Amino acid sequence: MDMGDVPAWAALVVSVGAVAVSLKARGDGSRAADAAEKSVTEAQRSAEASEQAVAEARRSSDAAERSAAVAEETLADQRREAAERRAAEAEANRPRAALKIEHANKAKWHLVNYGTAAAENIVCVDEVEAMIGDWPTGLSLPPGEIHDFMMAGSMQASIPSVLRVKWDGQDEPVPLRVPPRVG
Q1: CB-hemisphere CA count at 13 Å for 25?
Q2: Counting beta carbons within 10 angstroms of the beta carbon of residue 111, is it exposed (0 to 12), middle (13 to 18) or buried (19 or more)?
Q3: For residues 83 and 89, what is the distance between their CA atoms, to the nearest angstrom?
């Protein structure tokens, strides 16, 4: 072997090495390209998923706002109903006068307060010809109290079947049944 052949053989070995490195680099480049392509595909899928998540989050946020608004309206309705119920209960539990007429004997009648509150300034609205004496002015009946009055019927002035009275806090006249005379 001649010395001139050694550089050729060395060049051959180097060129074979270069081909091997080139093939290896080409394989690595191909894998890198595939990995980059997969990465881009995954990034696109991730971006689409992110957009869907954002859209879903917006829908969820809108639904939460609507739900909160409905809850606020419901709470306001419940508070209003509770206030109305308390006012109705207070009105129902408020002390009231409850007047009734009862026959005592002969021409004597009782005006009785069976209520839980006093009836102040009781006024008989009707003009009763059968009444003996005038209806007292400023008549007040505490709960459980009785006021006596007299009525005597005749052919010209019969005893009415109802007397209408009103008092402070009761502006609308209340009809009180006059029971029939017994004895």
Answers
A1: 6
A2: buried
A3: 10
**Helix, strand, or coil (residue 158):** coil
Beta strands in the chain (DSSP E): 99-105, 108-113, 119-124, 131-132, 139-141, 146-151, 162-167, 170-177
Going residue by residue through the chain, which has 183 residues, state the pLDDT in tens, using 9 for 90 and above: 566 677 777 777 778 787 777 877 777 777 777 777 888 888 888 888 888 888 888 998 898 899 988 989 999 999 999 999 999 888 888 888 999 999 988 889 999 999 999 999 999 998 888 888 888 888 999 999 999 999 888 778 888 999 999 999 888 999 999 998 776
Contact assessment for residue 152 and residue 146, using Cβ atoms and an 8 Å cutoff: no
Question: 3-class DSSP state for residue 128?
Answer: coil
- Report the distance separating Cα 133 and Cα 152, nearest Å: 11
